[in-house]
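ESCALATION

Customer reports they have been waiting on this structure for their group meeting. Please prioritize. Original submission:
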Amino acid sequence: MADFHKSYKLHADGSVDTVIRSRVNRESMVWHHIDPPYKAKTTIGTVDGVTVSVTTEPPVDIWTPIAYTVQIGDTLEILTVHLPTPKLALWQSDSVSDECPFCLKPAETMLCVHPEGCRHWAHMECINHWMMRTCCICRVSY
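Update from on-call: job pushed to the front of the queue and completed.
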C-alpha cells in the first residue's frame, strides 16, 4: 500500500471525489465520484498494473459518514468521509394546519426541525429519507 496515495475531496454541492493514485506514476489513478443523494457505487480500474476497486456504501441518514471499501490488490481497507454535520433547530407548531413539505402530514405527528437561517421546517424522518442537505423551499443549506 505504500506505493499508493488516497485522497478525498468533499465539494460544496455535497459531491465527493475519491482518487487512488500511484506514488511512482502520477498519471496512473482510479477516480471515483458520487453525488447526493448517495447511492451504492463501485469503480474498478488499475493503478500501475494493480487492480483497484472503490465501493461506496451510502450513509443511513444525513448525520452518518459515507463508507468506502478500497481494495488495492489483495489489501482491503475501510475508509469513511464525514459530511458536514447539519445545523438544525427543533420547531414547534402553533397551528394544526402546518404541513411537512415532503409528506404533507401535520407538524405534530413527528419530530420537526429546520436549518439555521431558514424558517421552513420538515419532519426529521422525511429529511433523513430524502437525504436533503438544503431546504427544499428556500435552498438554505442544512
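Sent to customer with the following note: Helices lie at 124-130.
Escalation resolved.
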